[in-house]
Amino acid sequence: ISGNTVLEKADLEPALKALKDRLMTKNV
Predict the structure, then answer these.
(1) From which domain of life does this come (predicted)?
(2) CA 21 to CA 18: how far, in whole Å?
């Protein structure tokens, strides 16, 4: 289970970063 959580975090972090970049680009 812990291994799964780590994988999820690794998958989510880049996705969140991409979302953040997209929002910043929209605002600017």
Answers:
(1) Eukaryota
(2) 5
